[in-house]
Write a structure and sequence with these properties.
The protein has 307 residues and is an all-alpha fold. The protein has helices spanning 11-23, 30-43, 45-52, 61-75, 81-144, 152-160, 168-171, 173-186, 204-240, 244-251, 256-306. It is built from eleven helices and no strands. The longest helix has 64 residues, at 81-144.
Length: 307
């Protein structure tokens, strides 16, 4: 048994309904037609949005719905084919925006990975060069002391400051440093009558000590200058790692995923162009058809008169 109560219609009611139904033509004005089409589209807005806007990608279904509504408001499609074309145009536009977000996300990841790699390479290198330069400066400070008479322990400590694998140019300083330490231990500076070190005539051991000192200073100066320049260069490179130019270079697409995203965006653009062209053709088809009919009628009348 049906739970819906049926309406008892008389012949008079049926005749009135038939008469009214025959007179109904739907929306007549452009605004009414647009509202009717929009209502038909909005009926499927959120179901379409749930399919298109993936929440896992951070997309908002309401934004997709607003995009479709703006297309309806601008294009005012009629029910049927025009509605379907507008829906497909909305999907194509949404996929274009999604492809742009994907490209932006890939660019950010490329930039972040590149920055981490460059900083990972440049950071330890700068630290290593700085440590060597500071160890060279320690030798220079030892030579500049007024009582520069280093013992064997201090000499070996200066050598050990360069680590287990010092560069070749630094290793060349070690024999000179040890020779100076040996010469200094054999010719300590004598004290004057007041017990203070002072200028006195140099003995042979002291002359050998001074010669070793000058030889060490000359070699040390040459190596120190090179490492100072290297340190300045590395610091400048580290400063450029996060420069806008370098970040832009790191963002440039290089992998297949980035190229795939570009092709996806181009494909959506071509699809949107085809849909828009088709929509305009369908939109203007009734007006063109009416024009053709009028033209045909006119030719027929002309022929009748001529004959």
């Amino acid at each position: 048994m049906s739970l819906i109560r049926k309406q008892n219609l008389t012949e008079k009611n049926l005749a009135a309904k038939r008469s009214n139904g025959g007179q109904a033509r739907g929306a007549a004005t452009p605004a009414g037609k647009a509202r009717s089409a929009a209502a038909r589209l909005r009926h499927g807005f959120y179901s379409q949005a749930r399919d298109e806007a993936l929440v896992a990608l951070g997309e908002d279904p309401k934004q997709y719905a607003r995009l479709l509504k703006s297309l309806v408001d601008d294009l005012q499609p009629r029910a049927g084919l025009e509605n379907e074309l507008v829906l497909r145009m909305g999907r194509a536009l949404w996929r274009m925006q999604r492809a742009e977000r994907m490209q932006d996300g890939l660019a950010v990841k490329r930039a972040q990975s590149g920055l981490q790699l460059e900083e990972l390479v440049a950071g330890p290198r700068m630290i290593r060069i700085n440590d060597i330069y500071e160890a060279l400066c320690d030798i220079g400070r030892m030579l500049d002391r007024d009582d520069s008479t280093p013992g064997p322990g201090e000499i070996e400590a200066l050598v050990g400051a360069f680590g287990d694998a010092p560069p070749a140019e630094v290793q060349e300083l070690f024999p000179l440093l040890r020779s100076y330490g040996e010469a200094a231990s054999k010719a300590p500076r004598p004290a004057n009558e007041t017990g203070e070190a002072g200028p006195i005539p140099l003995s042979d051991p002291e002359q050998r000590r001074e010669a070793a000192r000058q030889q060490l200073e000359a070699a040390l100066h040459e190596v120190s200058i090179r490492y100072r320049m290297s340190l300045d260069m590395v610091m400048e490179e580290c400063g450029k790692v996060r420069s806008p130019q370098n970040i832009a270079a790191l963002m440039a697409p290089r992998d297949e995923n980035a190229l795939l995203m570009q092709r996806m965006e181009d494909s959506n653009l071509r699809q949107l162009w085809r849909l828009t062209k088709m929509f305009l053709m369908v939109k203007h088809a009734p007006a063109e058809a009416e024009g053709h009919e009028s033209s045909s009628d006119g030719d027929y009348v002309y022929e009748k008169i001529s004959s």
